[in-house]
Design brief:
single chain, about 150 residues, alpha+beta, 3-stranded antiparallel sheet, two-stranded antiparallel ribbon, 1 helix, elongated
Length: about 150
């Protein structure tokens, strides 16, 4: 597969080394900043005798809270009255819908009862007759019942 080479002869290749070019720093304008006051140095003695020294940091002061404008009682009462009125209107709408649904249900139940009862009456009137409902005539000891001879 490969051409026969001596095992101990290294393969020489040309190697190029690239070094990155440094980017020159951009001079930033320096503005001297002098603190308004020199902070005080505080020292704290720990329980084991070590002393820690550092600058004391003042706690951040929250911004003063602006006073909320006063809300008049009239505005509160009008808002609560509007909410109450909306709740009453919604309740009446739900109540009206419920009453209409119940009336429709009762109407349908009455119609269903009339259909069932009317069907039962029609079945009784128009259906086949059984039992002692026919006319019985005795002629020569024979019984004729509904035009049928029974001996």
């Amino acid at each position: 597969m490969f051409p026969q080479q001596a095992r101990h002869a290294p393969i020489e290749r040309a190697v190029e080394v690239h070094y990155p070019a440094p980017i020159p720093p951009v001079p930033a304008p320096l503005t001297p900043h002098q603190p308004g006051t020199v902070p005080t140095v505080a020292s704290i003695v720990l329980p084991d005798g070590r002393v820690v020294t550092g600058y004391a940091i003042d706690a951040a002061k929250p911004e003063p809270v602006t006073a909320k404008p006063a809300i008049s009682r009239t505005a509160v009462n009008v808002a609560l009255g509007g909410i109450g009125f909306a709740a009453v209107c919604g309740g009446l709408l739900v109540l009206t819908t419920f009453i209409a649904a119940m009336a429709a249900l009762i109407h349908q139940l009455i119609i269903l009862a009339a259909v069932i009862f009317g069907g039962w009456i029609a079945a009784q009137v128009l259906g086949p007759r059984h039992g002692d409902g026919g006319t019985v005539v005795n002629i020569r000891k024979a019984i004729f019942k509904r035009n049928r001879f029974h001996g």
